[in-house]
Task: structure prediction
Amino acid sequence: MKQKLILGLLALFLMVPAVMLGQDEMGQPDILITGVWARATAVASMMPESTPEMGMGHMGMDSVEGVSAAYMTIENGGDSVIRLVAAATDAAGLVEIHEVQMENDVMKMRPVEGGIEIPAGGSVELKPGGYHVMLMELKRELVAGEAVSLTLTFEMGEDGETHDIVLGAPILSEPPAVGDLVIVNAWARPTAAAMDMSAESTPEASMSGMAMDSVSAAYMYILNRGAESDRLVAAATDAAGLVEIHEMQMENDVMKMRPVEGGIEIPAGGSVELKPGGYHVMLMQLPRDLLPGQAIMLTLVFESGVEVPVAVPVYDKMNSMSMGH
Ligand SMILES: [Cu+2]
Result:
């Protein structure tokens, strides 16, 4: 009984953004960023010659401490050129878009003038020895197995309008394997305590404050680039004591959420969006608040047995979207 009441109130809390987001019902995002990772500093410092970036700090050759790099593939499915012009993360004091080039037989890296251009319908790979997002003045060790939140700023089209994309980067010592099941645009809602709900707190919010403090939800697109359909049947993370795959449904004019029976089918060649008001990965019994700027590692488990780790940035997507337009 109490459980039902709490789930009902949580459904209210999770529903609001569905209206505010006003996002497309169908269609994949135009910009797909896959294979994201940031290099672990602990491992990097043990293998200084493993990548050009690590061997050539701007601060000189004697130290690679406080430096890392992030890599990814950026696909531009839109019909106009985009440019990656800037990046930021809470984990680094200085972030630059770099390229590595040979100059008089010496590999050097430098900021990319005008940003990295990704043509309409094209893709660009950021990888060791080439383009990369340089993370300098690190504020903490980048520990393998954890994740960082990255904000990429793109210039779009002719007028150079900018658009931010927030993504999670898993911290690894080598590139991640990218399989048929690809996760993009993941995000997790900051916990209630981290959001400003004090001023205009609804009765529902204050009533259920205790419960909402320890719940969140993760959303994303899941693309299936394989020839076989699969099903998302479970998920796990160290950031929550209990994780369930949920859906929202109207029941006697009341929005309710409940575990999805049999999981969510991801059709071959298709995609499914988990979003506020619909499917979501419910994160319950959180041992810590989820704060904007953080990122968590989430493992998605599919019926086929495939497990896909995904780095999920924590941010208030509804708010950042309304500010951006
Ligand atoms: Cu839920």
